[in-house]
Amino acid sequence: MICGRFADVAPDTDPAEARAAAAAMVVGLAHDVHEVAVDVTWDSPREPGSWTAQVTVAETAPNA
Questions:
Q1: Do strands 38-42 and 53-57 pair parallel, antiparallel, or not at all (unpaired)?
Q2: Where do the H-state alpha helices sit in 1-64?
Q3: How many whole angstroms separate alpha carbon 53 and alpha carbon 61?
Q4: pTM value?
């Protein structure tokens, strides 16, 4: 689980760009640590400025 702010994402960054940065970090970590490809699917926000996502193992291998 990731919670909090990203040092390289400014507070006024567009939410879509911030979600893309978070997803890229999760995808990279999954690949580097577990050697798997994952998909990140964002849930609808329950409150302004707060987002959650589902992370699932991708159907295809990262090097396929």
A1: antiparallel
A2: 15-29
A3: 21
A4: 0.78
pLDDT of residue 1: 55
The 8 Å CB, 24+ separation contacts for 48-51 are 51/15, 51/19, 51/22
Provide the token pair at 45: 């926000």
Query: What does each C-alpha distance from 15 to 57, 58, 59, 64 come to in angstroms?
Result: 24, 24, 27, 31
**∠ Cα 15 49 44 (to 5°):** 80
pLDDT band at residue 32 under the 50/70/90 scheme: very high
Rounded to an integer, the average pLDDT of 54-62 is 81
